[in-house]
Amino acid sequence: MSIDKIAVVGGGAWGTALAQVAAAGGKDVTLWALEDDVVSAINKIHENPIYLKGCKLSESIRATSNFSELSDADAWIVVTPAQHMRAVLGRAPCPNMPLVLCSKGIEEQSGQLLHNVAADVCSSSPIAVLSGPTFAHEVAKGLPTAVTLACEDDDLCNALRDRLSMPSFRIYTSDDVAGAEVGGAIKNVLAIACGIVAGKELGENARSALIARGFAEMKRFGAAFGAREETLAGLSGLGDLVLTCSSTASRNFSLGKAIGEGKAAADLMKDRTTVAEGAHTAPVLRRLSREKDIDMPIVAAVDDLLAGRCDVDAVLERLLSRPPRPETA
Ligand SMILES: NC(=O)C1=CN([C@@H]2O[C@H](COP(=O)(O)OP(=O)(O)OC[C@H]3O[C@@H](n4cnc5c(N)ncnc54)[C@H](O)[C@@H]3O)[C@@H](O)[C@H]2O)C=CC1
Ligand SMILES: O=C(CO)COP(=O)(O)O
């Protein structure tokens, strides 16, 4: 299977970093971006100063705002914010070639995982999911990174792995598409919770407890949505959870930190140019957990804080006064 021409759909930090990985691996890369300023900066100065400032890009990456220039690609790497994926793919002449979904979230309106959203819009495209602990600025610099690539078609999964791998970008394969998506979506909500712990100065013990109990919520949700526990314990679940819950380089963690320091979520969300997916995932995750009767107290707490229904002290009191229970329940 020839995968030499790559189209990247989405010119944010992650799409730009993935374009850089593919170009460094010798692929012919065309990147579709929404903003004309991003397109012209990548073509003229080989940088994306809006979303990935300070990172020199390969001169071979061509940027465009015209979908027709992606029509001869062998695969599309789709990196839009989760809530815009349906609209962006709907604007494109739907390709028959493989789509590699790299966004992290759940569609708010439909409650669907993103592979289902993409399948709705591009019903004839085979779908893979690439997810893991991957801060864009580190990947763009070529620092060592490992990810999960999930696809139900083994041959396609192996072909994509072979064509997209680099020594510093190590790809592990899986056939658990839902599992790879569930971990990436939920860890963003839990990162907001860990940011709140940091902003409120509740200590490192509390942060570790949140990671472990948050992982328990991820496993409960995953079991109801067809995710395998071994996938959730891997790069796309626990690996990404630990990364995002530990660093102010995470937009989700930083959003939580500011809330923990006393700022109002609504003010923090106003005028954002970069995406903190957890803020969009929390309400839909809460809704789905209620519908399926899945106990997710940390997700519920983050949802209440983001919606301004409670303050941090009230949410903390609620979490700490829950009745004792066996750890594995
Ligand atoms: N930045 C990172 O380190 C990583 C991000 N991701 C995921 O990749 C996805 C994209 O995130 P980033 O590249 O970081 O974005 P970003 O925060 O760097 O940039 C925002 C993106 O949103 C797009 N956008 C804004 N309004 C839009 C609209 N109305 N329609 C379509 N697109 C619109 C912009 O064009 C831009 O591409 C997210 O789901 C994120 O969770 C995954 C792994 C790492
Ligand atoms: O998904 C990411 C790292 O794997 C990026 O996290 P943030 O969106 O919180 O910055």
What does this structure look like?
With 329 residues, this protein is an alpha/beta fold. It folds into two domains: 5-175, Rossmann fold; 179-320, N-(1-d-carboxylethyl)-l-norvaline Dehydrogenase, domain 2. It is built from 15 helices and eight strands. Strands 3-2-1-4-5-6-7-8 form an eight-stranded mixed sheet, sandwiched between helices. The longest helix is centred in the middle third of the chain and has 23 residues, at 177-199. The protein is globular and about 60 Å long. Residues 104, 133-135, 188, 191, 240, 243-244, 250-252, 277 line the site of 1,3-dihydroxyacetonephosphate.
List the helices and strands and how they pair.
Blueprint (H helix, E strand, L loop, with lengths): L4 E5 L3 H12 L3 E5 L3 H10 L16 E3 L10 E4 L6 H7 L7 E3 L12 H8 L5 E5 L4 H5 L4 E7 L2 H11 L4 E6 L2 H23 L4 H21 L4 H4 L2 H10 L6 H10 L4 H5 L7 H15 L5 H10 L5 H9 L9
Parallel strand pairs: 1-2, 1-4, 2-3, 4-5, 5-6, 7-8
Antiparallel strand pairs: 6-7
Bound molecules: 1,4-dihydronicotinamide adenine dinucleotide and 1,3-dihydroxyacetonephosphate (13P).
What tags apply to this protein structure?
binds 1,4-dihydronicotinamide adenine dinucleotide; binds 1,3-dihydroxyacetonephosphate; alpha/beta; 329 residues; Rossmann fold
**Which ligands appear in the coordinates?**
1,4-dihydronicotinamide adenine dinucleotide, 1,3-dihydroxyacetonephosphate
Overall average residue pLDDT? 96
Strand arrangement, major sheet: 3-2-1-4-5-6-7-8
Number of domains: 2
Shape: globular
Strand content: 5-15%
Helix content: 40-55%
Structural class: alpha/beta
Helical run tally: 15
Q: Gap between N and C termini, in Å?
A: 46 Å
Biggest sheet character = 8 strands, mixed
Q: Which superfamily, in CATH terms, is the homologous superfamily of the largest domain?
A: NAD(P)-binding Rossmann-like Domain
